[in-house]
Amino acid sequence: MVVTQQKNITKAKPFLKWAGGKTQLLPTIKQNLPLAALEGGTIKKYVEPFVGSGAVLFEIMSAFPQIEEADIYDINPELINVYKSIQYNVEELVEILHAYEDKYIPMGQEERKLFYYAIRKEFNNDLDFIERDYYPNIKRAAQFIFLNRTCFNGLYRVNKKGEYNVPMGQYKNPTICNEPVLIAANAFLKKVRIHLDDYRESQHLIDESTFVYLDPPYRPISKSSSFTSYSKFDFNDTNQIELRDYFKILDKKNAYVMLSNSDPKNNDISDNFFDNLYEEFHIQRVNASRRINSKASNRGEITELLIKNY
């Protein structure tokens, strides 16, 4: 008997909750794309040196199939391990996640808490996985996704030792295994090159036919907002200045470059850090929602920056 598989119609989209993810900002980003170059075929390559949840990657590569090459980078080995696991062995990943979901969902709150912290402990006991084990590590990717889907606010936060330290969330019925989305991401990522590396290592791929989207760890707009550490390495003002220098390098290569970041003027109208840093480029303030804050009263509408060289 021949089984006819139903054609996958799920659109590729982010498979993780991610602080700073660009899903809500996509309409504004799309309005600010170099559309003439994208639609006219001048742009043939897409590079995203801080991939995060991949919202912009999925959107642009789906909207402009004429782009021939895509490369994504990140220094977070856990994140890249998840991308590579989906790319190479999504079937095993889905199987493990279904097992987690089937076990976790029927549990009471106290049982869930024990299960969550047991997974987190096992995850933190194996921080050198990338040096020791075959890469990608599918089981570890499943642990990462489980923690991401059940933790507080979908945060990725680690301490200076690299240990994941986000507490359990209070979701009643979290989707731990979104199989259609993972399968769609697998098909999509087969045409993407995935790199565990510093953003500057993307330079050799970039030329005048490349669109580059830079979404670095945001500069905190207040002291309390810096709790969402992106990795065990801080991205401070010196790093932001170094990124500006890289932006200039790409501009001299005649690449099309867009960068997003926080707007310091939300907290201090006299803070011209980015206005001075990118004064020779196009700076646009766009509306966004601040969703990640420990106090609900501190969430709401803010502005973010989109900076372009075109």
From TrEMBL:
Please state the Enzyme Commission number of this protein. 2.1.1.72
Question: Mind telling me which InterPro entries this protein's record contains?
Answer: Ade_MeTrfase_dom_2, M_m6A_EcoRV, MeTrfase_D12, SAM-dependent_MTases_sf
**Mind listing the GO molecular function terms for this protein?**
site-specific DNA-methyltransferase (adenine-specific) activity
The yes or no answer to whether the keyword Methyltransferase is present is yes
The biological processes this protein is annotated with in GO are: methylation
Task: List the catalysed reactions.
Answer: a 2'-deoxyadenosine in DNA + S-adenosyl-L-methionine = an N(6)-methyl-2'-deoxyadenosine in DNA + S-adenosyl-L-homocysteine + H(+)
Ordered alphabetically, the record's keywords are: Methyltransferase, S-adenosyl-L-methionine, Transferase
Signal sequence span is none
Where does the source fall among the domains of life? Bacteria
- Does the record bear Methyltransferase in its keywords? yes
Stored Gene3D superfamilies:
Adenine-specific Methyltransferase, Domain 2 (1.10.1020.10), Vaccinia Virus protein VP39 (3.40.50.150)
The record, for Pfam families, names: MethyltransfD12
NCBIfam families membership: dam (TIGR00571)
Which family, according to UniProt?
Belongs to the N(4)/N(6)-methyltransferase family.
Protein name, as recorded: site-specific DNA-methyltransferase (adenine-specific)
